[in-house]
């Protein structure tokens, strides 16, 4: 469903830009044509800038270091360059280009990758190619329904874990970006056995909600709001032993999950990656190398 939605959005934007440019060019207004095309194609950078401005304003007395204006500006620029590749190419048109890789001959543990809100398995395309080159088995899920409850994703995570268990005979490493980390925690809450997972790595996950969640309209975005009951109920079921299985990557330039320390868990290995925006976090070598380390651990 999501790939179709993103395809429709991409084609609509391109169509609108072409129509605008052609119409005003023929009307003898090339300047107006050019300005309109730029506004249509790059209009997403304006609300993106507002997110980074909110990061600056909302920080308050958060325990994480406050990002400088230059760090936020650089992060905005890099995120603006990253988003079209992810949301206009990999996810709408390339989500199935890299199949799941389950090799019984591999000596590595399997990895289950769980994407975040408004994403699909195409989000992990670069990782999937690298993991396969390292002979690390993996399964990347598609969370459905797109706008449903996070609890609806438990079964999808369960199916992915079972596939990896069947192929490798070992508990996998689970990796979640953004909302995907919450889906993993929800799945863990339904597991009576600790040994079904080797380690959990979350990347920019709103473990304690996010300030932006107050503007959410779907069920899953409302669950990610700061102070949401869903968060409190999830935390009540987690023991210190469970949280010790987590590594949480977060950034003070995360434009979606902020204040930044909301992406951490008490008792987890919380690792701060400075000067990196929400989607960019996945492209950081320190994050991928940590996943590979845990996957190759005997």
Write up this protein.
This protein has 298 residues and is α/β, with parallel strands linked by helices. It has two domains: 2-93, no CATH class; 111-295, Alpha/Beta hydrolase fold, catalytic domain (Rossmann fold, 3-Layer(aba) Sandwich). 47% of the residues lie in helices and 9% in strands. It contains eleven helices and six strands. The chain has helices at residues 2-26, 30-42, 45-58, 69-93, 125-133, 154-168, 179-189, 219-223, 229-236, 240-243, 285-295; strands at residues 111-114, 138-140, 173-177, 199-203, 246-250, 269-272. Helix 1 packs antiparallel against helix 2 and helix 1 packs across helix 4 (69-93). It is globular. The mean pLDDT is 95.
Quick overview of this protein structure:
It contains 11 helices and 6 strands. The protein is α/β, with parallel strands linked by helices and 298 residues long.
């Amino acid at each position: 469903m999501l790939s179709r939605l993103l395809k429709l959005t991409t084609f609509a934007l391109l169509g609108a830009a072409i129509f605008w440019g052609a119409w005003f060019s023929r009307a003898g207004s090339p300047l107006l044509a050019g300005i309109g095309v730029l506004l249509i194609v790059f209009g997403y950078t304006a609300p993106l800038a507002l997110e980074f401005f909110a990061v600056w304003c909302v920080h308050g007395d958060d325990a994480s270091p406050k990002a400088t204006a230059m760090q936020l500006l650089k992060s905005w620029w890099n995120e603006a360059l990253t988003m079209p590749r992810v949301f206009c190419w990999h996810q709408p048109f390339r989500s199935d280009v890299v199949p799941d890789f389950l090799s019984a001959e591999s000596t590595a543990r399997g990895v289950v990758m769980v994407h975040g809100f408004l994403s699909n398995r195409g989000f992990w395309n670069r990782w999937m190619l690298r993991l396969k080159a390292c002979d690390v088995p993996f399964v990347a899920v598609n969370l459905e329904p797109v706008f449903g409850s996070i609890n609806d994703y438990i079964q999808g995570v369960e199916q992915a874990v079972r596939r990896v268990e069947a192929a490798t005979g070992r508990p996998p490493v689970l990796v979640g970006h953004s909302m995907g980390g919450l889906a993993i925690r929800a799945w863990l809450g339904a597991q009576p056995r600790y040994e079904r997972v080797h380690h959990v790595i979350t990347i920019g996950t709103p473990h304690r909600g996010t300030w932006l969640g107050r503007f959410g309209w779907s069920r899953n975005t409302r669950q990610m709001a700061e102070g949401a009951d869903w968060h409190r109920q999830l935390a009540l079921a987690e023991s210190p032993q469970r949280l010790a299985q987590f590594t949480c990557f977060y950034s003070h330039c995360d434009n979606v999950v902020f204040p930044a320390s909301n992406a951490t868990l008490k008792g987890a290995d919380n690792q701060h990656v400075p000067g990196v925006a929400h989607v960019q976090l996945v492209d950081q070598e320190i994050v991928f190398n940590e996943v590979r380390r845990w996957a190759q651990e005997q």
